[in-house]
Amino acid sequence: MKILATFDGSKFSEAILPQLLLIAALPNAEFTLFGVASEQGGVLRTHSTKTGAIGEAFGSVAPVTVKGIEPTWAEDHGQAIQRHEAEFVDYLHSVRAKLPPDAKVEIEVETTEHPSDAIIAAARTREVDVIVMATHSRGGLISVFFGSTTEQVVRSGVAPVLVVHPPKS
Q1: Domain-embedded: residue 109
Q2: Is 63 part of a structural domain of the chain?
Q3: Whole domain around residue 49: which residue ranges?
Q4: Are 28 and 38 in contact (CB under 8 A)?
Q5: How many Cβ atoms sit within 10 Å of the Cβ of residue 73?
Q6: pLDDT tier for residue 73 given thresholds of 50, 70 and 90
Q7: C-beta separation of 30 from 3 below 8 A
Q8: pLDDT above 70 as % of the chain
Q9: Cβ burial, residue 15 (10 Å; 0-12/13-18/19+)
Q10: Cα separation of 24 and 133, whole Å?
Q11: Does 47 share its domain with 109?
Q12: What CATH number did the domain enclosing 125 receive?
């Protein structure tokens, strides 16, 4: 049995762990811990200051312009994505440590603006038997029961979806 377990990096998404532990007891259970990371921008090394006119506040007739410092980047967009994916892989390894040591587990991370598309594509590629995911349940009438990402995955029909609603804290 192939299981695609989805995580977004939050404690909220870890609400599926009790179900994964139950599934791990089944013979031939194979897990893919699938992380969907959001697009990341670069990291600023220095912050710019505002350009503006001063002088009138000091009684000067002519305004004095202060130029801002141009920002410099510690990493570009591609480097930011690589860093974020590496951090997400580390996170998924910490999640993996919560499963039985003998469980067959693979880890995969994808960075995208469209998590539902990535989950559906991974489910198709891996020909999974079930997708396990938590739902945030925020917005819209249908989203009262399923979050928008969960709703899209369920509607895709690519595989049965075990939806977990985390307890309210």
Answers
A1: yes
A2: yes
A3: 40-74
A4: no
A5: 14
A6: low
A7: yes
A8: 71
A9: middle
A10: 15
A11: no
A12: 3.40.50.620
